[in-house]
């Protein structure tokens, strides 16, 4: 192609041999310059690609403003808790640095979809639109039970036992088994934004019958607040859900690797060791 281009130019202009020699020399230099530029362009692209692949990978993990102890503890210098510890260990092995983000519950889903965060702890059953997200395997099970004042006549076997009662619930949380009763007004719910406050309302409020919370969360709070002897805990609960990571759907590769590492931790005892720190 280049040879044909030179031939065409040589036949278009009829000049003296000396001028033709000079022009051919210039033309050859120009062509060589073009070829050199063309050869260097792919080299630049490869270098840019290598720089991108060498960048540090981060995982922006929502720990919420108030945490969710003992799964997420935020009132210390560094975050901690069951979910934080597991995510930190796995992410490091996968080559990610975990960045803690404190996003209010009502903004989490949208900020996850828009890419401001990469993951948040969530049970699939708690999600308003679970089909929009990708979920990992469960890290730990969440068992929601009732915490009632000690020596009260409160008992629970099925939702009908709660008719005409007022239950203290967590703001923004869904309780699928109880939702029809809430909607019909047969059971009243009273929402609070902090888990610790749920127990305060039940203990000091005359119109509240019990609080519904995860068994491990409730026991953690009562132990730290010195209130364990003031509450009875039902043996029967309303749910038993897997607590997972909720991710965007384009994080399939991360989810698969996370699940593989989590399975190894479960098998070799690492996961049990983390859980033991918070029980």
Explain what the structure shows:
The protein is α/β, with parallel strands linked by helices. Helix content is 43%, strand content 20%. Strands 3, 4, 5, 6, 7, 8, 9 and 10 form an eight-stranded mixed beta sheet that branches. Strands 1-2 form a two-stranded parallel sheet. The longest helix has 37 residues, at 17-53. It starts with a helix and ends with a helix. Mean pLDDT is 84; it is low at 1-28 and 30-53.
> What is the distance, rounded to the nearest whole angstrom, between the alpha carbons of the first and last residues?
76 Å
> Whole-number radius of gyration?
32 Å
Number of DSSP strand runs: 10
Give helix and strand order, one letter per element, not per position. HHEHEHEEEEHEHEHEEHH
DSSP summary: helix tally: 9
Helix content: 40-55%
Net shape: globular
Q: What's the mean pLDDT score?
A: 84
Uncertain spans: 1-28, 30-53
* Category by helix and strand content: alpha/beta
Main β sheet profile: 8 strands, mixed
Strand content: 15-25%
Question: What descriptive keywords fit this protein?
Answer:
single chain, 279 residues, alpha/beta, eight-stranded mixed β-sheet, two-stranded parallel sheet, 9 helices, 10 strands, 20% strand, disordered N terminus
Write a compact overview of the structure shown:
By secondary structure, this protein is α/β, with parallel strands linked by helices. The chain is built from 9 helices and 10 strands.
């Amino acid at each position: 192609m280049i040879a044909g281009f030179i031939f065409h130019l040589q036949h278009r202009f009829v000049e003296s041999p000396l001028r033709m020699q000079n022009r051919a020399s210039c033309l050859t230099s120009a062509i060589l310059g073009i070829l050199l530029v063309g050869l260097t362009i792919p080299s630049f692209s490869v270098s840019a690609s290598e720089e991108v692949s060498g960048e540090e990978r981060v995982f922006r993990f929502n720990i919420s403003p108030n945490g969710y102890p003992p799964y997420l503890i935020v009132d210390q210098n560094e975050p901690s808790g069951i979910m934080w510890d597991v995510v930190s260990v796995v992410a490091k092995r996968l080559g990610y640095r975990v960045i803690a983000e404190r996003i209010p519950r009502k903004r989490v889903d949208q900020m996850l979809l828009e890419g401001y965060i990469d993951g948040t702890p969530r049970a699939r059953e708690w999600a308003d639109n679970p089909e929009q997200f990708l979920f990992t395997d469960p890290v730990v099970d969440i068992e929601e039970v009732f915490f009632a004042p000690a020596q009260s006549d409160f008992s629970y076997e099925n939702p009908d036992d709660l008719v005409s009662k007022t239950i203290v619930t967590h703001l923004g949380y869904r309780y699928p088994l109880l939702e029809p009763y809430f909607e019909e007004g047969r059971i009243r719910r009273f929402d609070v934004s902090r888990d610790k406050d749920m127990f305060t309302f039940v203990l000091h409020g005359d119109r509240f019958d019990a609080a519904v919370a995860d068994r491990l969360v409730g026991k953690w709070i009562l132990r730290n607040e010195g209130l364990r002897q003031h509450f009875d805990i039902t043996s029967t609960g309303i749910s038993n859900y897997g607590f997972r990571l909720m991710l965007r759907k384009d994080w399939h590769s991360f989810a698969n690797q996370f699940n593989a590492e989590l399975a190894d931790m479960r098998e070799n005892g690492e996961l049990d060791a983390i859980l033991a720190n918070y029980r």
